[in-house]
Amino acid sequence: MTFLKAEQPQLFKDHAYKEIKKAIIQHQIEPGSMLYERSLSESLGISRTPLKLALQQLELEGWILSVPRKGISVKTINKQDVDEVFQLRKANEVLAIELLIPLLNHETIDKIEKADEQLYDFREDPLKFVYYDSSFHLLLAELSQNHRLYQLIHNLTDQFNWFRFAALKAGQSVDEIYYEHKLMIEGLKTRNVRQTTEAVLNHIDHAQTIIANLIDNEENPMTH
Amino acid sequence: MTFLKAEQPQLFKDHAYKEIKKAIIQHQIEPGSMLYERSLSESLGISRTPLKLALQQLELEGWILSVPRKGISVKTINKQDVDEVFQLRKANEVLAIELLIPLLNHETIDKIEKADEQLYDFREDPLKFVYYDSSFHLLLAELSQNHRLYQLIHNLTDQFNWFRFAALKAGQSVDEIYYEHKLMIEGLKTRNVRQTTEAVLNHIDHAQTIIANLIDNEENPMTH
DNA sequence: ATATGGCATCTGGTATACCAGATGCCAATG
DNA sequence: CATTGGCATCTGGTATACCAGATGCCATAT
Question: How large is the average pLDDT for residues B6-21?
Answer without folding.
Answer: 88
